Amino acid sequence: MCEYSITQMEMIEEIKLKRELMINSANTQGFTNEMTIQYSQELDELINKYQKVMEHISRPNEEIKFAFKQMIMIWPKILV
Asked: Which residues have a Cβ under 8 Å from the Cβ of 51 and sit 6 or more positions away?
């Protein structure tokens, strides 16, 4: 299981906060209100940023898995 760094946890908290602001704004001001739309766009940016960070973290794991699979395929040939 992947452990989250402080930065990742901070990003998640920031996303939660922005989502709450957007929901509150939508409920009080309306879905098409300028502030609601602004919060929505900011939330989209935060989510995209978080996904990019997570992609870079998971990529090395995928490279390790690929290298391991290749090693397993070669290993029996070396033993013969």
From this structure: none
d(CA 49, CA 74): 38
- Rounded Cα–Cα distance for residues 80 and 78 (Å): 6
Distance CA 11, CA 34 (A): 24
Cα-based angle 11, 12, 14 (whole degrees, multiple of 5): 65
pLDDT digit string, tens, across residues 14-31? 999 999 999 999 999 999
72: its two tokens: 């397993």
Q: 43 and 29 in contact (C-beta within 8 Å)? A: no
- What is the rounded distance in angstroms from the CA atom of residue 70 to the CA atom of residue 50? 31
Report the pLDDT averaged over residues 3-14: 81
Residue 53 and residue 60: Cα distance in Å, rounded? 12
